[in-house]
Each structure stands twice: as structure tokens, then as C-alpha cells.
Amino acid sequence: MTVPARKPDQKYTYGDYLAWPDDERWELINGVPYSMTPAPSRRHQAVTGEIYRQIANYIKTNGGPCQVYVAPFDVRLPKGGEKDEDIDTVVQPDIVVVCDRKKLDPRGLRGAPDLIVEVVSPATASKDKRDKFLLYERSGVREYWIVEPQPKLVTVFTLAGGRYGRPDVYAEPDQIPVGIFPDCIIDLAAVFADLEPDADGEGEE
């Protein structure tokens, strides 16, 4: 999808983003727009939905201030104290966990969440592994998961001293401890259960 009347070398802000058509999905990273179309595949949604379900069930059972959201959900990441309309980065991670409710407002979230999960596809892998990695590290996201439905791997980065250190890598049928919670475990056997090629036969996420 192209961006009508928007120059490719121009930088945009959240104020511009709010004026774009409601039926289009975009992310802004340092002022650069990235289209979120086409819609995610069945495989992508199945993996996202199961991780969300396990985290949501844990929060419901154990209570506490944390809340979990699934895309589309706007996360504004300011570089400082700029007004909302001047923020040049807004992303829609697949799953977001927020434990500081003061960061939540009717528009979504302003500031770094505690946990972000991105389920990658061939079209988004480089952005998730490079651009978003650097963005989430800079913004102070405590835990960042990169989930690859094929080859059924999850890479977990944990913030320490303002940097993401050496990641932990998990594969089916491992269980992943969620670092921001004392005893929450994600069962990858359930996450990756019955993943078959999509209807087009290509098996893309």
C-alpha cells in the first residue's frame, strides 16, 4: 500500500498518524512509516493468540496491576517529554504487557511496556530483529521476545544495565519463564501445536 501525498523522504509524527485513514494500519519508527498490510496469516494469529491466552490466564489468576494487550494497540515511544503529536515513533507489537497503569490512556500506551512479544514473518523479520530490537532497547522495554513460527523458536532478550545481553533461545517443547512475573511459564508445545502450512501452501507467517 502506498501513502498518498506523503513523500518517501519525509519524516512523520504521531499527529500525522492520527490523521491517516482508520482502515489503514501503520507503524512509525523514528518518523518513517511502515505499512502493516496485508493482515497477519492464520499461523501468525494462532501463535499470537496462544501466547496471549497463557499470559492473560496467569494475570487473571494471580491478579496485580499488570495488563496484557494484543495488536492492534498503539504504543507511543517518546524520546523525551515531547507532546503526543510530536512523537515520531508509534508501534503495534503483537503482544504488550503493561504493569504501570499510569502509562495507559484512551489512545493506548505512552512509554515503554514491561514485555513485548513480536511474532515474525518473512516480511517483518529484519525490522523486528534489527530496528525494533534497537528501539525497544533504547526505550527501556524490560523483556523482548522474538517468536518464529518456523522453525518454532523463541528468542528472549532481557534488559540489564540499559542493554539487551546475550539472549536465551527456546524451541518446542520448551517452557519459557516470563521474567517480569515470579512464576509464569509459557508452554511452547501449546504455542506451536498443530502448525500446518497456510492455505496457499507456502507456509508463510
Automatic annotation (TrEMBL):
UniProt domain Putative restriction endonuclease: residue ranges: 16-185
SUPFAM superfamilies: Restriction endonuclease-like
CDD domains: DUF820-like
Gene3D superfamilies, sorted: tt1808, chain A
Transmembrane intervals: none
Top-level taxon of the source organism: Bacteria
InterPro entries: Nuclease_put_TT1808, Restrct_endonuc-II-like, Uma2
Record's protein name: Putative restriction endonuclease domain-containing protein
